Amino acid sequence: MRTAILVDGGFYRKMATHYVGLVPAQKRAEELVAYCRKHLVQKDLIARTDHGKKRFEHSELYRIFYYDCPPVEKNVFHPLKGTSVNFKKHPTYLWMREFLETLKTKRKLALRLGFLAADEAVYNLKPDVVKKLLNGSKELSNLTESDFSLSMLQKGVDMKIGLDIASLAYKHQADQIVLVSGDSDFTPAAKLARQEGIDFILDPMGHPVNDFLLEHVDGVRSYHSRMAVDLMNEEC
Q: Which of 26, 152, 170, 234 counts the most CB atoms within 10 A of its CB?
């Protein structure tokens, strides 16, 4: 069985940070590849030898497709500071550059990059801060940088995922597709793949999944519960 693994990068990075925290860029890249390769050992296809011992079925990796956006390089105006923020000097910019460069060196991993709509980027007050301002529990004069969040839309990422699912299915380049994401927008693509005879597996990494999406996949399989344990074993 040939397995193609498609990773919604923004989703993966958010969930990985939630489970094991912030780590250096190279380590996160290694972690990503190791996480994806867990899907190649299929415990739901366990067979037994003639001697009664368990034998795990292994899939052949067709390719890991990683979808994300390179870091923004433009300045974005911050309303509290009254000046623009230069993201090229921000630590997250350097981290993301190193992360993507490391992924480029990985065997059987393809980067599918969209872009961040920097021209539409804006700093907004967080919803809970707005509530406090409206009910009088917080004053405008007490606002800090942590009360704001940057809103910046990804462009082209979801479309690339959908197109690759369709291409893999129509060309039968893989027998199985594993999608690491929690986005229900991919339901039509999942339906199409199944109609072409592809075994479609969803990995939401413990994130709640829309029932409509669950209806149109062949199974749900995640390894997020092992991430912290694997990190501890590496450190030991």
A: 152
